[in-house]
């Protein structure tokens, strides 16, 4: 396959890139600068020499026409995986910093493909559990799955960065499904909706201060942030390992039967108590850094989930929480503080 991957510098996208290349795809990935392209090029140099990896520079996915040039390639693309979207909470302007890039990036790439890339048969978009979860809570025993949609409103979206991020993913994914329903383009759509993603960091990172958002909990634990006050309860209560998530994206792109579907890709539920205990049991050097775990358990009953469709259609075999946490912590050790 000839495949376009957006946001190739990201935590998740770097794993997707590795999986695509190992599966024999010829990949063009978009990054924001030549410097980022050069770093990826040297990390994946074996594939550059075989002409299976090249780059397109897209500095800002929020800009009109940002992907118009990137979707055109010779040979033409068969598949597009759109992962680029801001995931952080460092903003007072959710509209500009979260909603615009998420929504314009998604609609912009779909329009560009429909207009100029007629060979594309499938577009896979990285959405999120943020587009599924209901912040108001669900009744005890509720089973979350891909049939759920976050009911967040436009007014709530700009209230704070947490709402802003969840709305950015919800509105962008909705816009994507509406686009294919209305425009009936020559491709079908798959969305991948992961909850909190743990897993080893393999993208370039100059220091742990610029770590991707979903691994911050583990960085904070090993740096002793919770040593005095103890670990709080988890905010997101489901998780997945980034390597399984990369497989999910690649299988979603390749498998015909995935077309038109939305996938809640999760290994299951977790508590910060379990995460803290895994760190204590596997890393004696961090044992005293973890802090009290008595307030980090599940609380009122364990949340329930249905990931059957990801098992049956995408064939994912999920890693255990212990394997994921151990490998993540090991990878963080190599990065300067
Ligand atoms: P990262 O922050 O590592 O990756 C985000 C990527 O998007 C980076 O490549 C970043 O480029 C790019 N990007 C962000 N804003 C822009 C912009 N305005 N213009 C161009 N590129 C931009 O996070 P993740 O890898 O965790 O996230 C990847 C995707 O997965 C996102 O869509 C996110 O919403 C989704 N997701 C992540 C989850 C998680 O727990 N990690 C859970 C659910 C969904 P640069 O690095 O150059 O800024």
From TrEMBL:
InterPro entries named in the record: Epimerase_deHydtase, NAD(P)-bd_dom_sf, NAD(P)_dehydrat-like
Keyword field: Oxidoreductase
Any Pfam family hit: Epimerase
An annotated Gene Ontology molecular function: oxidoreductase activity, acting on the CH-OH group of donors, NAD or NADP as acceptor
NAD-dependent epimerase/dehydratase domain boundaries: 4-261
Family from the record: Belongs to the NAD(P)-dependent epimerase/dehydratase family. Dihydroflavonol-4-reductase subfamily.
Name the UniProt record assigns to this protein: NAD-dependent epimerase/dehydratase domain-containing protein
